[in-house]
Amino acid sequence: MEIPVEKWYKAIGKRRSCRRYFPQYLSQELVYHLWHVITGLNESRRSARIELLTESPDPVLKGIIGPFGKIKGARAYAAFIGATEDEHVAEETGYLGECFILEATANGLATCWVGGSFNAGAVAGLVKMAPGEKVLAIATVGFPHEKHPAGGHNRKPLEKLCTGLPREQWPSWAEGALEAARLAPSACNRQPWRFHVAENSITIYLNNPQKGKLLPRLDCGIAMLHLELGALSRGARGTWEYLDSPGVACYTVAD
Ligand SMILES: Cc1cc2nc3c(=O)[nH]c(=O)nc-3n(C[C@H](O)[C@H](O)[C@H](O)COP(=O)(O)O)c2cc1C
User: Fold this and answer.
1) 239: CA distance to ligand 1 center in Å?
2) Which of 26, 37, 87, 194 is at 20 to 30 A from 160, Cα to Cα?
């Protein structure tokens, strides 16, 4: 899959989680467009895939969700499904899911990742599931009925997230890549990622590898896409290699 760098990189700055939607269905045109994009995305990853459901997510959402209150009014959602035998299924699902989220954002839609507070069994009953597959997360999709909260994205500063080379010795593409990764959404805004910067690579690792397995790694998969988009927007094409815990993955740019 060729990543639409400019479009998705721009969408990073625009994307915010939305929990109040106009109760309005997506147009046929938008649904066809998203289906088309999803088909391409699903062919691009081995162990994760996306299903778009053009119905209200209310029956599968569980009660009050975290500190943010219940999500209301959405008329569509995406199910992010992983093949659980792959040890990197969470990262793959986060990466692929965020591709969908940024495409939806670029098309004027609002979204919200939902990691824990939904009924995965109920969603699995609505789509075709292969043996060993699990619905790892969903994202509500629709037209926003709320404004972004004032201020920035409320993220930790890069000084608190990065180890390795001192900032003045970072490769020229690193700052943009890390700024984009820093803006990635994460469950409860925990930002479980840390970054080790070297001469031609950035390694993502877990801040607290003991704390839960799945969602922090899924969050890191989201940060992987953001980091790659930030790097590509500066012409730094690289490759990913998955690592053992507490490592997640390393992005290396060829000279
Ligand atoms: C994997 C994942 C799971 C999430 N689960 C929920 C959820 O269950 N309920 C909710 O309201 N927000 C959920 N969120 C949204 C986060 O709370 C939100 O991304 C974070 O607070 C940062 O805010 P922002 O997305 O507006 O930048 C989730 C985000 C991610 C990435």
Assistant:
1) 27
2) 87
Question: Do 186 and 71 belong to one domain?
Answer: no
Using one digit for the tens of pLDDT, what is the confidence trace for 37-65? 999 999 998 899 999 999 999 999 987 65
Look-up: residue for tokens 């590509």?
A: 232
- Number of independent structural domains in the chain: 2
> Of all protein residues, whose CA lies closest to atom 20 belonging to ligand 1?
189
Same domain, 52 and 133: yes
- Pocket-forming residues, ligand 1, beta carbon under 6 Å: 16-17, 19, 65-66, 68, 112-117, 137, 153, 185-189, 215, 218-219, 222
Distance from residue 190's CA to the centre of ligand 1 (Å) = 9
**Which positions ≥6 away from 21 have C-beta within 8 Å?**
71, 72, 73, 74, 75, 110, 140, 142, 143, 144, 145
**Closest Cα to atom 13, ligand 1: which residue?**
114
Residue where a domain terminates, one of 111, 144, 177: 144
DSSP string for 137-195: EEEEEEEE-SPPPSSS-----HHHHEEES-GGGS-TTHHHHHHHHHT---GGG---EEE
Nearest CA to ligand 1 atom 12: 114
